[in-house]
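Reopening this ticket.

The earlier resolution said the output was attached, but the attachment link was broken on my side. Pasting everything inline this time so it's all in one place.
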Amino acid sequence: MNNESTSFLSQVEAVLAPLAEKYTPEGSEVIAVVHQWAHAIANQENLYAIKSNSTEKAAVINVLKNAGLLENVSEFAKHLNSETHYSAQKKKRFRFIDLFAGIGGFRISLQSLGGACVFSSEWDKAAQRTYFNNYHEYPFGDITKITSDEISDDDLNVLIPDHDILAGGFPCQPFSNAGVSARNAVGKEHGFKCNTQGTLFFDIMRIASVKKPKVLFLENVRNIEKHDKGHTFQTIKESIAEIGYDFKYSIIDSSSLVAQRRVRCYMVCFRKDLNIDFDFPEITGEPIALKTILESNAPEKYTISDKLWAGHINRTRRNLERGTGFTAFTANLDKPSNTLVARYGKDGKECLIPQKDKNPRLLTPRECARLQGYPEDFIIPESRTPAYKQFGNSVAVPVIKIIAEKIIERIS
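Inline output:
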């Protein structure tokens, strides 16, 4: 890190310190606020326009301008996105960005292998807070503000730091079996026709086409392979090939690494000019039993009510008789759990833990964290609803780590 950049960042931290206390949770680190606000500032429409309700952003810009630190937004972004901004990362093995980051399943895996996260993006506010609590950095919000047609390639190149690996579990609801069924039921579009989520894959393509990282590391639901009779997956493969990348994928079950049967589609795409041949690692072993991750004395609040349990029993019986619809049985503790989903907190039907002489119970948030392979010191939300949603949307951390090890071996 050179002295000029060190001085610049120190000045930014100093002038924003009072605002950091005003606009962020107690105990937040000023440098994390700088990261998030810097991206937000540099990403405004026309580079300076501020929406009327974004009072904190307006305040930041005024403070920085008055301090003489924001004469030119592009230069400001270059300072904060250069290697000097990530001073501790110069000695890292590789650099990566974490798109559609959720609570950082990709990040925690890649960091453990010596990687430096140089940019992160996640739009869900509750997930942003969990991300901050664990990585001391607020991820940037709506990635489409950076990838929109209003942002030139030159500006995008400044706003997204250089990196070796682009990692992302782009939104899967438009492609999942449950998501497709739900959208069909209410007459909504799914797949790439879903404007709010399905097209976000193309935002990844925009970033990759400009930044040209060595490899794209992506994850999605198993159903993406067969969605729309295979047309969706073909579009993905062709889009990746068009911007100069090879395409490899594998359908992998997590149950030999975590106590959950979570079958997902993993995609690894190396830049063609690197001439890197990649084969997915074999993930084998006996399935892990659900009972191995259960808490010994779960609080009573996780036991479901008589009304809810009776509803599960009645709907299960009716659906079995007509041969369609969901069923809700207590889990077999000697086998992996069913796939944890974002809606789990609504009624827990996907995984109900049997209890002696009482109704079954929901998994606790800590048990959900264990099902996805998060460490015991991972800070989970205090509120149950966002916790269930966040872990249900997460990747299985050990699977990501094993694939990442093979990727890093090849790019090293």
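Reporter confirms the inline version is readable. Residues 1-91 form one domain. Residues 3-23 form the longest helix (21 residues).
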